[in-house]
Amino acid sequence: MTLQPAPPFARRHNGVVFLLSFVVIVWSTILLVGGCQSSHWLIKKQPDWSSFNQLVYRDHNSLEPSPRTGQVLRQYDLAERFKTHPEQVLRQLQIILHAENDAHILFAQAEISNMLAKRSENQDEKKAFDFYVTAAADSFEYLFGSKFASTRNTYDPQFRQACDLYNESLDRAMRLANRHGGLKPGLQHFCHTGSESIVFRITSHVDHLRDDGFKTFAFVSDYEINGLSNHYRTYGLGVPLIAKRAVFEKNQQIESHYPPGMSVPVTAYLRMHPSRRMGPEGAMIREAVLELRDPLRTPTVQVADRVVPLQSDSTTPLAYFLDNLEYTDTAAATSGLLRPDQTPYPGGLYMLEPYQPGKIPVLMVHGIWATPISWMTMFNDLRSIPEIRKHYQFWCYFYPTGEPFVYTAADLREQMVQLREILDPQKEEPALEQIVMVGHSMGGLISRLQSVDSGDLFWQQIAEQPLNMAKADPETRKQIERLFFFRANPAVRRVVTIATPFSGSDLSNSATQWLGSQLIEPPKLIMDSLQKLKSENPKLLKTDVADLTPTSLEMLAPGSAALKSLAAAPRAPWVTYHNVIGRTESKDFLRRVTGDGDGVVTISSAQADDVVSEIIVDADHHSIHRHPRTILEVRRILLEHLDSVRPAVASDIASPQFAPETPDGRLSSPPDGGPVRSLTPRF
Known about the structure:
alpha/beta, Rossmann fold, 2 domains, 7-stranded mixed sheet, 6-stranded mixed sheet, 25 helices, 19 strands, 38% helix
C-alpha cells in the first residue's frame, strides 16, 4: 500500500508554513508522549504501623503495656515484677494460660512478646525473631483458637488489635528472616520463647512461583505509590509482599512471553498447626507455617468455619516492576518510532501476569510513540474488579511504532498464533478463543486488522497484476503474502478502539510526513522484499519501492491507501466492535489546526459506522485511555462480553477462593513430619 506521491515540499510550502508544521509535529509529539510517566513510580518510606492504635510504643525499649494488658498483669500480681523481669513474667503467663484458657491472658502474652522483640532487635536479632514469631502465633490463637471462643468477643476493640498485632509481628519477623536470606520456601527455623517452642516453616502456595521461583522479596509497606492514580488494597490478615520472580515457567517458550523483571503480589499468611511431640525428649512443640499465597487468585483463606480475607496490595508490585524497568517509557517509545529496525528494547506479545487456563485474554495495543506502559493505569483499575480479575488475564503488544501499522499488524497476527500454539497446542482451551482487543490511536487500527479479511484489497493498492503472476523466490513471496493477504483471527471476538484515526489525522500532512521521512528509518526487511519483487517484475508494482514503504506517519494521512483498504475490508461476522472518541474543549493552537476532537484526531475521523457502542469522553488524545470514563466503558464491555460467553467458557476453572481445612481450623496434614532442623543461613 502506498500514498499518492505529493508534490515536492518546497513547491507547496513556504518557510512560514514549514515552521508552523514543525511546531505542530513537536506539539503533537508532546501530546503523544505527554502521558509517559517518570521513572519513579514509587517513593521509599519507613514502614507505617500507625493502625496499631495504643499498642504503638514510644520506643523500642518501652515496656509500658496497653491498659488491658496492664490489667491482666495486676490481676495476677505480676505488674511490679514485669518492670524488672519481663521474660520471667512471660513464662508465668504461659503457665497460667494452660490452666485457664482465657483469651485476655493470651492477648497479654502476645503483646508482651511483641514488646520484648522490639527491645531485642538491636542487640540479638535471632531472639527478636523468636519473640515476633511467638507474638504472631499467639495472636492467631487468640483470633481462631476454639478453646478461647467463650472468652473472645469479635466486637471487642481488642479483637481488631489482635489482628494488627498479628500483622505487625509477622511483618517484623519476616524482615529479620529476609535480612539473613531465611525467607525462602522450604526453609524452617526453630524458635524458643519463655517455656514454649515453635517450628517456623515456609511454604509456597503460589502455583506459578514454586520453591525455586522466587528471586527476591520486598515489603509493600516500605513504599508509597507515586506514578499510578489509584492504589488498590484489601484489608485482613497477612503481610503483602512484592515477589520478583526468577522464572514462572520451565517451558522457555512460555517464559519468553513474560516481561523481563516482572514482579507479582504475594501475601504471607501464618497458620498454626496442632502441637506435637518432637525431639529426643518428646517435648510439645507448636508448628507455625508461613504460607506464601497469590492474593489475586485466592483472596481469602478458610479457618475452621470462617472465611478470612487476606491483606493484599496489587498496585505496589506493579509500580515496583515499572520502577525497575531497564528503560523509560519515553526512551523506548522514541527509539521504536525513529529506529524501528534497530531499537534495543525487547518488543513482542507479553503476558502481564502468569498465564491461567480458563481466563479470557484482554490484549492491549498501544499507539504511536508509546509503549505498553501507557496502559498501566487502565490495567491497574480493571484488575481491581473481582469479576474481571477472576475471568480475564491481561496481555500487551509492544512494537516499534515507526513501522507502517499494516506491517505491525502482520507481526502481531503471527505472534498471536504462535502463543496459542505454545499455550494450547491441542486447541482445548475455549477461553483463548474469546480474546478482547483494546487499541489506542494507531493501536486501534492494528487491532481492527486482526478482525478483517484482506482479500486482494491491500495488494491492489500497490500492484498492477495478481501476485500469483509474479516471479518471486519462496522467502520473498512469503513476506509479501504475510503483509498483504490475511484472514481474520477466529480467536478475536471483540475489538475496542480508543481515539483511533479511522480516516486519518490532519497532523499527518505533507510537512510532517516529509519531516518524518527524514527522521524515521523504514523497515529494511520489507524494503528488501519489495525491491527483490520489483527487480524480477519491473512492471508489477505501481510506483517506486521507496513510496511503497511509508512511515507510520504517512499511513495515518487522511485518505491514505492503507486506511481506505481497511475501511473496505469485510469484517468477520463473529467480531463485535466498540468505540471511544475523545473531545477536548481546549482553544489552543493545536486544537485550531486539528479541528473538533481530541487535539490529534477529529471526531469525524474517530467515528465508526459498524460499532455496537460509541461514547465521547472529555479527554485529549494522550490521556483518553487513562480517563476514568474510558476505563469504566472498557469495564462495562468486558462484563458484557463475559455474560455473552459464559455458556461457552468454563468460568470457574480459576483457583479456589480458599484453602480447605479440617473442622478445627488447621491443615489436615503438616508439610513435613520429620525432625526439627535449623537451616542455614542462621541469624
